[in-house]
C-alpha cells in the first residue's frame, strides 16, 4: 500500500534563523505519524542546515531543482550529485514556475529527472495545465504530453531507477498554485487516475506503487477532501509549508486519510480514462 507523502516547497523563502525555528517546530510535531512520509525542499544554500537539523528526524529534505548537466561551464547550476552530498532524498523537477520563468521544456525536465535518478534522488516530477488550457478542454492532453517523456522517454535502465527510487509525480494545476483556488477533489482525482493509467500502460505494477501527489493551494481546510481521494497520495505545498501549524495539520490529515484508505477493502486498479 502506498504511504502518503507531504512535501513542502519553500521556494524563495527562508533565512537561517527562520528555518531553525520552522524546522524545530516540524521536528517536534512530526515524529509519530503513521503512513505518512514528510519532506521539505529548501533553497540550495540551506541544504547543509537541513541536513544538520533533520538527519535524526522523521523529516526528509530535498532540493527544488537539479541541473540537466553533470559538470562544466554552467554558471549558477547545481548538479544532482552535489545536492545528494547533502543527504537529500528528493528533488522537485519541472515545477511550473521553472517552466514559466526559465522556459524549461519537457525534454529538459526529463534530463533533470535522469540526473536526479542517477544520483540516487527521488524526483518529484511536476505536471499541470494552465487555466486557458483547462478552459479550452485541453487539460488531459497537456498533462499527457508532459508525462509522455517520462512514461515512454526513459529507457529500461532509467525506468528501473525510477522504480528503485520511488519517483513521485505531482499534479499541480498552474491555476491553483498560489491563488487560493484549489482543484476540486473530483477534478484532481480524475487527473491522478489518468496519470496512473498512463503509467500502467508501461508498467502496471509500478502504476499501483507510484505516488501521485496533488499541489495547488492545498490547505488545512481542503486537505481532507483532496487527500481522501483514492489516487491522491499526498500533497506538494507552497504557502502552507511556511506556516508550521498548517504543514503539521495537513500531515496529520494525511495520516487520517491514509488510515481510512488502509481500512478500505481493496486498492483500486488503474482504469482507462478517456480524453473526451
Ligand atoms: C507549489 O508551488 O508547488 C504550490 C503547490 O504552491 P501553493 O501551495 O502555494 O499553491
Write the layout of secondary structure elements.
Layout: E1 4-9, H1 16-29, E2 36-41, H2 47-54, E3 59-63, H3 80-84, E4 90-93, H4 96-101, H5 106-118, E5 122-127, H6 131-135, H7 139-151, H8 156-164, E6 168-171, H9 185-202, H10 204-209, E7 211-215, H11 223-227, E8 234-237, H12 244-263
Parallel strand pairs: 1-2, 1-8, 2-3, 3-4, 4-5, 5-6, 6-7, 7-8
Helix pairs in contact: 1-2, 7-9
The chain binds phosphoenolpyruvate.
What does this structure look like?
This protein is of the alpha/beta class. The protein has one domain (4-263): Aldolase class I (TIM Barrel). The protein is 44% helix and 14% strand. It has 12 helices and 8 strands. The protein has helices at residues 16-29, 47-54, 80-84, 96-101, 106-118, 131-135, 139-151, 156-164, 185-202, 204-209, 223-227, 244-263; strands spanning 4-9, 36-41, 59-63, 90-93, 122-127, 168-171, 211-215, 234-237. Helix 1 (16-29) links the parallel strand 1 (4-9) and strand 2 (36-41). Helix 1 (16-29) runs parallel beside helix 2 and helix 7 (139-151) runs parallel beside helix 9. The model has no long low-confidence stretch (mean pLDDT 95). It binds phosphoenolpyruvate (PEP).
Amino acid at each position: 500500500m502506498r504511504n502518503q507523502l507531504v512535501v513542502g516547497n519553500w521556494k524563495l523563502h527562508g533565512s537561517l534563523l527562520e528555518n531553525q525555528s520552522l524546522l524545530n517546530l516540524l521536528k517536534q510535531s512530526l515524529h509519530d505519524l503513521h503512513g505518512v512520509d514528510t519532506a521539505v525542499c529548501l533553497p540550495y544554500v540551506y541544504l547543509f542546515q537541513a541536513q544538520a537539523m533533520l538527519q535524526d528526524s522523521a523529516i526528509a529534505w530535498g532540493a527544488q531543482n537539479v541541473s540537466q548537466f553533470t559538470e562544466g561551464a554552467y554558471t549558477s547550476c547545481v548538479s544532482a550529485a552535489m545536492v545528494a552530498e547533502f543527504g537529500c532524498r528528493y528533488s522537485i523537477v519541472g515545477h511550473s514556475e521553472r517552466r514559466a520563468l526559465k522556459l524549461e521544456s519537457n525534454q529538459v525536465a526529463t534530463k533533470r529527472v535522469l540526473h536526479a535518478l542517477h544520483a540516487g534522488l527521488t524526483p518529484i516530477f511536476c505536471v499541470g495545465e494552465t487555466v486557458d488550457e483547462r478552459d479550452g478542454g485541453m487539460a488531459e492532453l497537456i498533462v499527457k504530453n508532459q508525462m509522455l517523456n517520462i512514461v515512454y522517454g526513459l529507457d529500461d535502465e532509467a525506468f528501473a531507477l525510477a522504480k528503485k527510487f520511488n519517483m513521485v509525480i505531482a499534479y499541480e494545476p498552474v491555476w491553483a498554485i498560489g491563488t487560493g483556488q484549489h482543484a476540486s477533489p473530483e477534478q484532481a482525482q480524475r487527473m491522478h487516475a489518468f496519470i496512473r493509467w498512463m503509467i500502467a500502460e508501461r508498467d502496471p505494477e509500478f502504476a499501483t506503487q507510484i505516488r501521485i501527489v496533488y499541489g495547488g493551494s492545498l490547505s488545512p481546510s481542503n486537505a481532507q477532501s483532496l487527500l481522501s481521494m483514492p489516487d491522491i497520495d499526498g500533497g506538494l505545498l507552497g504557502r502552507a509549508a511556511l506556516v508550521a501549524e498548517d504543514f503539521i495539520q495537513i500531515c496529520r490529515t494525511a495520516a487520517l486519510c491514509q488510515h481510512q484508505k488502509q481500512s478500505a477493502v481493496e486498492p483500486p486498479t488503474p482504469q482507462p480514462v478517456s480524453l473526451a
